[in-house]
Design brief:
Helix content is 77%, strand content 0%. It contains 4 helices and no strands. The protein is flat and about 45 Å long.
Length: 92
């Protein structure tokens, strides 16, 4: 959401928040990849990140997704659940 705010109006504080957010996100992804295969870890990170950004966009910017967007997000979340619950590729 900070990236949207930065694109609307450039401020040094917002830029610091965006850079800090990216550094934090990639740091946690690297930590997770110590125990998960790269494909599985990245799929979970990207899929849940997409769903969370849509949720934040709806709550903060009133960008409410339509039925097809919600269906797609539901399929992404279902895929993440399948990876975590059903796949034998995932290392717990």
């Amino acid at each position: 959401m900070a990236l949207k705010a930065l694109s609307d109006e450039f401020k040094v504080g917002t830029l610091a928040l965006v850079v800090g957010g990216y550094v934090t996100a990639f740091t946690f992804l690297c930590v997770v990849l110590w125990t998960l295969p790269v494909g599985i870890g990245y799929a979970i990170w990207a899929g849940l990140g997409t769903a969370l950004v849509v949720l934040c966009g709806a709550l903060i910017y009133r960008q409410v997704p339509d039925l097809w967007a919600l269906t797609g997000i539901g399929l992404i979340v279902a895929g993440v659940v399948c990876i975590n619950v059903l796949s034998k590729t995932n290392i717990h």
